[in-house]
Amino acid sequence: MKRVLGFAALLVFAYTACAEVPRPVGQAFVDANVPLHSVSLVVQEVGAARPLFAHDPTRPMNPASVMKLVTTFAALELLGRDYRWKTEAYLGGPLVDGVLHGDLIIKGYGDPKITIEQWQSFMAVLRAKGLDRVAGDLALDRTWFKPGKHDPAEFDKEPLKPYNVGPDALLVSFNSVRFVFAPNAAGDAVELRSEPALAEVALGAPPRIGNGDCGDWRGAVGARFVNRGATASAAFAGSFAASCGERDWYVALLDHPHFAFGMFSTYFREAGGFFNGGLRDVYAPSGVPPFATLESPPLYDIVRDVNKLSNNVMARQIFLTLATTRHPPPATPALAADVVQRFLKERRIPMPGLVMENGSGLSRNERVTAGGLAQLLAAADRSAAREEFASSLAVAATDGTVQKRFQNGNVAGQALLKTGTLEGVKALAGYVIDAESRRWIVVAIINHPSAARGQAALDALVQWVYRSAGTWDPKTER
Asked: Which of 270, 296, 322 is the last residue of a domain?
């Protein structure tokens, strides 16, 4: 505890002489009607002993999705850049002439990104290994995680939004269905399909073809989704304008075990297998090699999706996986937070005030300081995982969450950033490479009811760092 307090004291000392904010930066927040008392800022050259300037850097703030920087850096360090999740299949009985006389057991270890294509490949492997028919049930072992009770409506009353899907040891295709709408070739009707096409999700007739502008096409199709957990339905009583072309809508339907069951039933049969059993929970056998294994892409590939696209569900999967590096399963959020705190202490990365609830930033309770994030970004730059971490960040005006930002400035392509947005929160953190190839750490967090108006100020900060940080002298502004 004394050492942690020492880190905090050092952090405060480092910022005491760096409180002034450059006039153009401060003016940008004024112009956005965001008061500076609701803002925390740090700008520091990589490798420098102290910031160029900092404003309220030690106040714990809600960082929104910028919290993913903590989760992904800890994962790269503790799990390793090449870490791969596994999903295993076991035979619950003898396999005779292609027939499994027993259950097929599938055990999940928290893979953050099992796509439809990867699941199809997994089913193809089962078939290639001689499994033609499962005479028993599909039995799932989801005990690697114990995420606690999850209410998808709790955060923002939007339980069908894919970003509100809870973590699970066996997460398949983000537990979401993609509904695709498009005018037919004749232009007189709407074609509708769902991916995956699960028997558990009853799909009604497509909406009527309509004229006029596309506009609020989702409101116009008159969607009605009913999610019962084991089954679901989708109906569209409205119209879809031909001018819309092809559009899609992702909706989280079914609970985790029934979604996995539907995926198995659908794609095992598509691969030529036969299955007509039920669903149940079991423990996979221990000390027995799996019949087949699905491996995830490497972690360095996974964290790119998490940070560039700000994928909340994947971040939560990674966060829970961190618990298993030092605690026996099942992984819980509290154990994951404990692992991260111990990791930061061991690496001497001072982050006083850090509160992690799920590691994704999709939380009203998570907190971090701008100064702590700056320390983390500095440590990441010194890390063996530096390249993997930096390449996971969105590139200004190029990709990810900042693809459409910074289009009209020289900073395009010269900033690697993680963004965060919640109601009342706007944040940004990462690295800026200026015209002289100097590298700067930039952290900015707004917590204010009008935070949504602050994006222009955050962008102005990044552009100022690119243009002026290397030559700024606070004495000239006095």
From this structure: 296
Return phi, psi of residue 243, to 5°. Answer: -65, -10
How many C-beta atoms lie closer than 10 Å to residue 219's C-beta? 9
Residue with tokens 């819309």, as numbered in its chain: 244
C-beta of residue 54 within 8 angstroms of C-beta of residue 19: yes
Angle at 461 between CA 458 and CA 467, to 5 degrees: 145
Residues 6 or more apart in contact with residue 11 via CB below 8 angstroms? 57, 58, 350, 352, 369, 371, 372, 375
Backbone angles phi, psi at 92, to 5 degrees: -95, 25
Type of residue found at 417:
L
Q: Does 16 have pLDDT greater than 90? A: no
* 3-state DSSP assignment of residue 293: strand
Domain carrying residue 116: 85-296
Q: What is the pLDDT of residue 478?
A: 60
If residue 36 lies in a helix (H) or strand (E), which one and from where to where? none
State the amino acid at position 381 in one-letter form. Answer: D
Structure confidence at residue 257 (pLDDT): 98
Q: What is the dihedral of CA 339, 343, 344, 346, to 10 degrees?
A: 140
pTM score over 0.85: yes
> How far apart (Å, rounded) are the C-alpha atoms in residues 295 and 455?
39
Q: Which of 262, 296, 330 is the last residue of a domain?
A: 296
Measured between alpha carbons, how far is 441 from 431 in angstroms, rounded to an integer? 5
Q: DSSP code of 162? A: G
CATH number at residue 265: 3.50.80.20
**Helices and strands per DSSP (H, E), number in the chain:** 12, 23
pLDDT (tens digit per residue) in 133-172: 999 999 999 999 999 888 998 999 999 999 999 999 999 9
Structural domain total, the chain: 2
| Other C-beta atoms lying within 10 Å of the C-beta of residue 340 | 22
pLDDT band with cut points at 50, 70 and 90 for residue 19: low
d(CA 394, CA 15): 28
Rounded to an integer, what distance in angstroms lies between the CA atom of residue 331 and that of residue 421?
Answer: 27
